[in-house]
Write a structure and sequence with these properties.
Blueprint lengths: L2 E9 L6 E5 L10 E11 L6 E9 L2 E11 L4 E3 L5 E4 L3 E6 L5 E10 L1
Antiparallel strand pairs: 1-9, 2-8, 3-6, 3-7, 3-9, 4-5, 4-8
Length: about 110
């Protein structure tokens, strides 16, 4: 099974849902998986706090991994305490309480 490490950054530029990770599609007949090793949320605003909600989506259901967590000015919040396996068809999203205050970095291992 091929493996590749990926890191992706996202600015939460709206208060809408931003999808930050998805399960990878495997080769024919093989299901892929994304092993998320870290999700960091940084407040880049110099004077205002913001909250973040991070959810795992499996089909039509969504599950909170972090719900309305306050991220202080200049602070970084680590969402995961342990790696998270995201299967093909699943995804992870982040939603901020205010636009352009939070940035998210996702570090993952994609296995196909």
């Amino acid at each position: 099974m091929p493996e590749s490490f990926r890191s992706n950054g996202y600015r939460l530029s709206t208060t809408g849902t931003t999808y930050i990770a998805t399960g990878v599609t495997g080769t024919t007949g093989v299901t892929g998986v994304t092993l998320i090793r870290a999700i960091s949320v940084a407040n880049i605003d110099t004077s205002n706090t913001a909250t973040v909600t991070v959810r795992l989506h499996q089909g039509a259901s969504g599950y909170a991994m972090a719900a309305n967590v306050n991220v202080s000015t200049g602070a970084v919040y680590q969402v995961l305490a342990a790696p998270l396996a995201v299967r093909q068809g699943d995804s992870v999203s982040a939603t901020a309480s205010a636009a352009d205050r939070l940035e998210v970095v996702v570090s993952a291992l994609e296995i196909t």
